[in-house]
Amino acid sequence: MANVIDVDVVVVGGGPVGVTALALLGRAGLSAIGVEREIQPWPTARAVHFDGETFRTLQSLGVAERFAKATLPMASMHIENEEHEVLISVPTGRLGTQGWHDDLTFHQPDIEVLLQEVVEELPGVELRRGMTVLSVRNVGEGVEVAVQNADGEESLIRARWAIAADGARSQSRKALNIETEKIGEDAQWLVADGILEDSPGLSSDMIFLGHHTRPALWIRLPGKRVRMEFMLMPGDDPEEITTPAGLERLSHGVLPADKFTADRLATYTFRGRISQQWRAGNIFLAGDAAHQAPPLFGQGLCAGMRDVANLVWKLDAVKRGAADGSLLDTYESERLPHARFWVEQAANAAGFLQTTDADVARQRDAFIRANPAASAPVAPPLGPGLHEGGTDERAGRLGIQPILADGVRLDDMVGSRFLVATTHELYSALPAALRERLEDNDDVVILFDPAKVGQILEAAGAKIAIIRPDRYILGLGETPEDFERLVAALPQAGRDVPAHL
């Protein structure tokens, strides 16, 4: 009989999204096992970009400073056309509203090692490598995942929930018969990662080379690492373009044959996909298993990190009895539309940036010159869920993180709890029973010191702001009546959590 293991959550997939989920679960106090087929972390780069929101997730694990040493804040980014005209230039390299740099690049193997170290430091969670998943299925009120190790020994992991973060070819998704929707057109690209020695590369940290003769992308990574991506064209010789001389030719000398050493040359498909369903019973899809986007805005891994940041605090609340199970229904309703937005934006951008038609490229250039803001889409709100976005467009959006005068980031004071930010006057005007209810709730932090929450209230344009553990705004208000309504919307056991507020 197979060895039987019981945990709160089983995570299928040991890439960055799956391991981040394990770390978040461990930090929350849930027991979890992650299973991954590969014995060692993937040795070469795939994702290369974090945003400030992603770093807030790492901050919640207490390791953001450690990760900051392995990343490079982007100082500049631009789009150029065939004539090397800079169509739009985006200054980066500054601290953004999340309390971290808006855009950072990294070498994924370095990040994966750090994430695994975090999991190893946490009690109650572990990542088991060299495990082949035989089946993933819902059973009663929980799930069962059958696995086999490299020696052929089988185990059965029983859990209340499963997070399927097993990538674009997700076997879990296929086993659940969940279809994916294609968005945009697929395109074949060559990716070259490696070390560039004693050569300047290109001027910006990221450049979209909108050359209709061959669209390309340049990214500067930490240390001497760089990445270039080239769209494959009819007539390309697969063997020639992957030689040092071929890369020098494709890059127009940016990657000289005697100065660039590739450690990854891979042909892959830029594709846009959205899974039509993100939850089946007690199994939740996350990361590339749920969505895939062309890498035009660097939101692929960021979106996966948002998935697990959204899901884990809800699993924790339900596990502890602080919320009803219906709270978990808001995972798909909130995250799917948000992820779809970025997939569609990336697919649309890919369509005009990777055009190989000279006339279309000229029209594109004219459009960008006239509409520069269109090249930098604003992040959307969450879909319907645990927030008041249906009645207040400010709710359901990501809140800001102030850095206090002593250098402390506010999240470090709040932890993975709800933040009630307001004024002392408004809080004092509340009925004593309501104040007592808030102060007795261990899942809530109340702050009314303007030095701590003044920026939050100013940015939101409100006198009351309730921020969720994943840093999204539950709701805003101005009056004691608003306050009472917002407090009533906090998750509680013993009542259904509404599908939307």
The shape, in one word, is globular
Strand content: 25-35%
Average pLDDT metric:
92
Alpha carbon gyration radius: 24 Å
Structural class: alpha+beta
- The N- to C-terminal Cα distance equals 48 Å
CATH architecture of the largest domain: 3-Layer(bba) Sandwich
Name of the CATH superfamily of the largest domain:
FAD/NAD(P)-binding domain
Please give the count of helices. Answer: 14
Low-pLDDT residue spans: 494-501
The strand count comes to: 25
Please give a structural write-up:
The protein has helices at 16-28, 52-60, 64-68, 108-121, 171-175, 244-250, 300-319, 329-353, 358-370, 411-414, 424-428, 432-439, 450-460, 480-488; strands at residues 3-12, 32-36, 49-51, 71-73, 76-81, 86-91, 103-106, 125-129, 132-139, 142-148, 154-164, 180-182, 187-196, 206-210, 216-220, 225-231, 260-270, 273-275, 279-280, 283-285, 291-292, 418-422, 444-447, 464-467, 473-477. Strands 1, 2, 8, 9, 10, 11, 19 and 20 form an eight-stranded mixed beta sheet that branches. Strands 6-5-14-15-16-13-17 form a seven-stranded mixed beta sheet, with helices on both faces. Strands 23-22-24-25 form a four-stranded mixed beta sheet, with helices on both faces. The protein has three domains: 3-72 and 101-183 and 273-372, FAD/NAD(P)-binding domain (3-Layer(bba) Sandwich); 187-270, D-Amino Acid Oxidase, Chain A, domain 2 (2-Layer Sandwich); 381-501, Glutaredoxin (3-Layer(aba) Sandwich), CATH 3.40.30. The longest helix has 25 residues, at 329-353. The chain has 14 helices and 25 strands. It has 501 residues and is α+β, with helices and mostly antiparallel strands.
